[in-house]
Amino acid sequence: MDTSPAERSVALQQRSKRIRFVLLAILLANWVVAGAKLIFGLISQSAAVTADGLHSFIDGGSNVLGLVAMGVASRPADEDHPYGHGKFEALASLGIGAMIGIGMLELGRMALDSLMHDRHAQVTPAMAVVMVLTLCVNLVVTRVEGHYGRKYKSSLLLADASHTMSDVFVTLAVLASLGLVAMGYPKADGIIALGVMVFVAWVAYGIVRQAVGILSDTARLDPAQVAQHTVGVAGVRSCRDVRSRGMEESVYVDLKIEVDPNLTTAQAHEVADRVERTLHAAYPQVVDVVVHVEPEHDGADRAQGATPHVS
């Protein structure tokens, strides 16, 4: 079903509100987890658990960054931003990737310090219980955030879910190292931490790659498929130069079509309008379509650059 620009704008505003609500809920969960780890880590004088708590606070910081970004990204298009503010969401994803990178460096420092100076946590049953409980909370947070990220097609929520998953693996590494240390293998703490650091680096790379793809206007739709939909519209003789960009949930498309040169300007515009309606129906994520209409001409004319536009 075709929707008007006003209806699509309202839908985007509603989507933004839902994403902000999810981020608020996740922020509360992340800070509860971080607070529990920090308090228990300080009481037990465990550097590993305290560091894991700081890593969880990075998760909370990314949620705050996401809330600020979504507040900006949800603003309608204006004179300075005629294509809207959606890319601020991608910028926030880059910020999350940077936060993961910072956590990765801290994790590497801790690992090397443990290996070189034979430092490890003092293992107690209560410490293990706290770590397991916070691990369960993080698993639920990751699952919920990933679900809503896919539902709302939000690169920000998906990036933050990946970030929280990195915290899950850090906690698993801490638990594994605590177990091995208790069994008499103190070096295991640093070795496992280095392995987690590699995983965290891979997560950061994936988030940054996705955000850079959005900011660098990577094609969002298959040009051949778009052209196939277009040439199926009555009055379209051919379609070429299909381009698309934007985010997964808000895509902008422009293309060129050729029509019967005997059509009037009004008739040519009607063909262009039909193309727009067809593409909006085929791709619900498309928010704007720009159709350049040209009269059909032979290869010789095209080579000489005779491409008058009716747009």
Overview of the structural elements:
This protein folds into two domains: 5-215, Alpha-lytic protease prodomain-like (Up-down Bundle), CATH 1.20.1510.10; 223-303, Cation efflux protein, cytoplasmic domain (Alpha-Beta Plaits). The protein has 311 residues and is mainly α. The longest helix is centred in the first third of the chain and has 39 residues, at 5-43. A three-stranded mixed β-sheet has the order 1-2-3, covered by helices on one side. It has helices spanning 5-43, 47-73, 87-117, 125-152, 155-182, 188-215, 223-231, 265-282, 299-303; strands at residues 238-247, 250-259, 286-295. It is found in: Membrane. GO terms for molecular function: cadmium ion transmembrane transporter activity; ferrous iron transmembrane transporter activity; zinc efflux antiporter activity. It comes from Myxococcus llanfairpwllgwyngyllgogerychwyrndrobwllllantysiliogogogochensis.
Please give the CATH class of the largest domain: Mainly Alpha
- Residue runs with pLDDT of under 50 for 5 or more positions: 300-311
Number of strands: 3
Mean of residue pLDDT values:
75
Q: Kindly give the count of domains.
A: 2
Radius of gyration: 26 Å
The H-and-E topology, N to C, reads as HHHHHHHEEHEH
Helix percentage range = 55-70%
